[in-house]
Structure formats: C-alpha cells, structure tokens
Amino acid sequence: MAIRTIITEPNKLLRQISKPVNGVGKDEQKLMDDMLETMYDANGIGLAAIQVGVPKRIIVMDISKDETKKEPRYFVNPVIKNKDTEKATYEEGCLSVPNQFAEIDRPCKCEVEYLDYHGEKKLLKADGLLATCIQHEMDHLEGILFIDYLSKLKRSMIIKKLSKKKSTAAVL
Length: 172
Ligand code: GNR
Ligand code: NI
Fold this sequence. Notes:
172 residues; alpha+beta; Peptide Deformylase; two-stranded antiparallel ribbon; 3 helices; binds ligand GNR
C-alpha cells in the first residue's frame, strides 16, 4: 500500500468525468488499497479515485467513528438507483478543498448499486452521513465539488483563497 498525493482546487483534473472500469482486478484492488490508506492518512471519510488523479469510477469510504474498528467500504462503478425527495443538511468538507466547510442539502436517503472489492454486485440502502457521503463522492465522478452548490460569490472566494495558498506554498 502507498499514500498518494491528493489533488486540490483549483485543478482541472477535479472537473474530469471518470470512466467506468471493466471489472475488479489486481490493478483496481491496488488502487483501492492505496486510496484507503491515503484517505485514512488525511483523516477523511471518503475518497474518489480522481482525487488522486485517476479518472476511474472508484470510491472508498469509512464513516465509522471508532478508529480501532475500521469499516472500509469500496464502490466500483456505483450507480444511484433511487433518491429520497426529502433533503438533509450536513456540514460538508472535501479533501480536495482543504479547510473549507459549508452546509449542503442533499436527498436524505439513496440506493446505490455497485461492485464491491471482490467484483460482486451489491445494492446498498443508505441514509444519514452515509447517504450524504456517497452522493458527495458520486459527484466527484462527474467532476462536481460541494462548492458548486454555493453561490458564485462564495465559490469564487474559496477558489481565490485556495489558489493564493498554492502560490505562496510554491515559493517555500
Ligand atoms: O472527509 C470528508 N468528510 C465529509 C464530510 C461531510 C460530507 C462529505 C465528506 S467527504 C470528505 C472527504 C472527501 O473529500 N471525499 O471526496
Ligand atoms: Ni470530496
């Protein structure tokens, strides 16, 4: 396993639409292992492959609170089958939009069909933080970030802040 570099805004790669994979083989499993290690290292609860620069429809997630009881989840080629009309609000953050947080409304429940770590087809009914996180990650596969749901002004302020931080980091 290896920790990979997480891409941050502004970066065009984050806007790319990820491609479905042909199945789960050794390469996909290696990528998922690396993504999980990268996510844990960054204290995140989810990570999409594009965040480490790989435009494949692969997501890893672990929303367990207890650090001693890890509950890794793997989603390959996920498709949302059903979304509740009722919304829930969560304060969201993103490893690709460091140190920025905002309350986002999303369908409070959803059903997602996907392949697991072993390539087996699964259906998951999610609610609460799990539902929010899945939708946040599925957005990454479409090149969408949570800041896209904010006003143009708020979004541009965040992007300006992040690009400033990048340019000062580059001189150090
Ligand atoms: O670590 C993360 N926390 C989080 C909190 C609320 C809603 C979504 C998330 S996902 C985020 C990790 C990340 O950027 N995944 O793409
Ligand atoms: Ni994110």
